[in-house]
From TrEMBL:
Gene3D superfamilies in the record: Cobalamin-binding domain, Methylmalonyl-CoA mutase
Protein name as annotated: Methylmalonyl-CoA mutase large subunit
SUPFAM superfamilies: Cobalamin (vitamin B12)-binding domain
PANTHER family per the UniProt record, alphabetical: METHYLMALONYL-COA MUTASE, MITOCHONDRIAL, METHYLMALONYL-COA MUTASE, MITOCHONDRIAL-RELATED
Keywords attached to this entry: Cobalamin, Cobalt, Isomerase, Metal-binding
């Protein structure tokens, strides 16, 4: 810690300090683990939940597999509770969910997305890296011939940054307070399923 403080006083960046520590000690790695059954038990029988579950079943009949979502945590963001909530709820609805390790680079997320052949990457951001890391992932997917993999973003992202992200190819943004079932319905729409909008579903 003392050496990190000395480096910071000498104007080293957080990235430079972190890289030096990683080179010396290795990178701390952990993979968030979704829980099963919590959201299914709470929402079962509700119309919107049923619509999403039916939509996922229709996707599976059409494509021969369930829709695949990679939940990605990039950068120095070690907050994984929100990512776990999303992974757990989407899994209960029927998505095939891949939880990525914490502290990934966009390049590492790209490799995992291609390896798992996902349909969507959900980038969870709570540490203000959204304007650099998420557009970089979009760029890498395009350069590697997979612009079809949709990139969505969630977490603490200021509303004034939404247009910036959309202009750089982010397909959906889900901030604090977003209804998890509605966000799943929106993801299905992004994948081409004809989900009714929230207003119609409530009628």
């Amino acid at each position: 810690m003392a050496l990190a403080v000395t480096a910071a006083r000498a104007r080293a960046t957080l990235g430079e300090i972190s890289k030096a520590m990683e080179d010396g000690f290795g990178r701390y790695e952990t993979v968030p683990t979704p829980v099963k059954g919590v959201y299914g038990a709470a929402y079962r029988g509700e119309d919107r939940w049923t619509q999403v579950v039916d939509g996922i079943a229709a996707f599976e009949r059409r494509r021969g597999r369930k829709p695949r979502l990679l939940v990605a945590k990039m950068g120095q963001d070690g907050h994984d509770r929100g990512a776990n909530v999303v992974a757990s709820a989407f899994s209960d609805m029927g998505f095939e969910v891949v939880s990525g390790p914490l502290f990934q680079t966009p390049e590492e997320t790209l490799v995992l997305a291609l390896e798992k052949d996902v349909d969507v990457v959900g980038a969870s951001s709570l540490a203000a890296g959204h304007k650099t890391l998420i557009p970089e992932l979009v760029r890498l997917l395009r350069e590697n011939g997979r612009p079809d993999i949709r990139v969505i973003a969630g977490g603490v992202i200021p509303a004034q940054d939404y247009d910036y992200l959309r202009e750089r190819g982010v397909a959906g943004i889900y901030g604090p307070g977003t209804n998890i079932v509605d966000s799943a319905a929106d993801v299905l729409r992004l994948l081409g399923h004809n989900m009714p909008p929230v207003e119609e579903a409530a009628e």
